[in-house]
Amino acid sequence: MIQERKSDHVDIVLGRDVCASENWWDRCWLVHEALPEVHMDEVDTRTTLFGTELSMPLVIVAITGGYPRGGKMNRNLAEAAAEAGVALGVGSQRAGLEDPRLAGTYSVVKEFDVPLVIGNIGAPQLVPQAGRPAYGVEDARRAMEMVDADVLAVHLNFLQEAVQGEGDRNAVGCFDAVRSLAGELPVVVKETGAGFSASTLDRLVDTEIVGIDIGGLGGTSFSAVEAHRAPDGSVLRRCGMAFRDWGVPTPVSLAFAAGRFECIATGGVRNGIDAAKAIVMGARSAGMAAALLRAATESADAVMAELQAIRRELVTAMFLTGSPSVDALKRKPVVLDPLVEHWMERSR
């Protein structure tokens, strides 16, 4: 069932319109500098994330694994990530933990010298679900060992679980489980399209997590993805589409988290301009998933070509804001739409 579901997810994201109705990065603007006083060819995109140097502030985020085609995609992503010097996160490793025959669809990333690898397990699996025992620290260690992960993402996908026919709907005890796991392993808490409220971040700041992956509203809606998996006319189809735009917009969540956590800004990041906006707003790195998905189904060269285009966009945005380095970019202004400011004010 897990293999089939993972295959469905990729096919739906590639073939259907499953984005949120609005990309909130379009409500944020960088300020043009007409006299940048920067040599564009000398713009330095290097940065560090979780203590590791990257060639640019980009994470290829949690896309796939757990079925045969997913292994091919992870190979292509890992090869390109190693060549480009960016970070890589694999998709949920539940399939590999429960069926060792599928572990290779994730562990293929170990064949390449990726500078920073992020493992991935689900928070719903950290508590008992419908008679299934909860994952413990040793299961999390196995997930990290499977891909030689430097850090472990624990993803919060309760919106997706709520609208999924076979979803895990018990959230009782998840916070304590995440907090306990973060005391043993380097944990990044990751949302998957609904973002973080200020109140959730207030709870997480007192844990030992090493960072936040925003995963905010504005990119792929997994509620919409699950709607397309459900039968026509079903309650699940209706519910999935009704919650397509549920969540906290990525820039809003990022504003709440920046300065308190080391942040990866995922959720609607489409290009190097969006990545630059995320850095200005306080992210340590931007994260992309859907934007690289089609290239990952083709070849490592296709992924590399996309990464090169993203870097060129980022460099151009840095040049046109007068930013010779990522640290300089962080100090630049950003203009926010009044609706974004309203969200920030009213949802604290």
Please name the defining characteristics of this protein.
single chain; 348 residues; alpha/beta; TIM Barrel
What does this structure look like?
The chain has 348 residues and is of the alpha/beta class. The chain has one domain (2-346): Aldolase class I (TIM Barrel, Alpha-Beta Barrel), CATH 3.20.20.70. Helices cover 43% and strands 13% of the residues. The chain has 16 helices and 12 strands. The strands form 3 sheets. The protein has an 8-stranded parallel β-barrel with strand order 4-5-6-7-8-9-10-11, surrounded by 6 helices. Strand 6 (117-122), helix 5 and strand 7 form a beta-alpha-beta unit. The termini are far apart. 50% of the residues are buried.
Task: Please sum up the structure shown.
The chain has 348 residues and is α/β, with parallel strands linked by helices.
Question: Layout of helices and strands, plus pairs?
Answer:
Blueprint: H1 2-15, E1 28-30, E2 47-49, E3 52-54, E4 58-60, H2 68-84, E5 87-89, H3 94-98, H4 104-107, E6 117-122, H5 137-147, E7 151-156, H6 158-163, H7 174-182, E8 187-191, H8 198-204, E9 211-213, H9 222-229, H10 235-242, H11 250-257, E10 263-265, H12 272-280, E11 285-288, H13 290-298, H14 300-320, H15 326-330, E12 334-336, H16 338-346
Question: What's the CATH H-level superfamily name?
Answer: Aldolase class I
Q: Structural class, from helix and strand content? A: alpha/beta
Which quaternary structure do these chains form? single chain
CATH class category = Alpha Beta
The CATH topology is TIM Barrel
Strand content: 5-15%
- Give the CA-based shape: globular
Strand order, largest beta sheet: 4-5-6-7-8-9-10-11
Radius of gyration: 19 Å
Which segments are poorly predicted (pLDDT under 50) over 5 or more consecutive residues?
A: none
Summarize the amount of helix as a percent range. 40-55%
Number of E strands: 12
Overall domain count = 1
Compute the separation of the termini in Å.
Answer: 39 Å
H/E series, N to C? HEEEEHEHHEHEHHEHEHHHEHEHHHEH
| Mean residue pLDDT | 96
Tell me which CATH architecture applies here: Alpha-Beta Barrel
Number of helices: 16
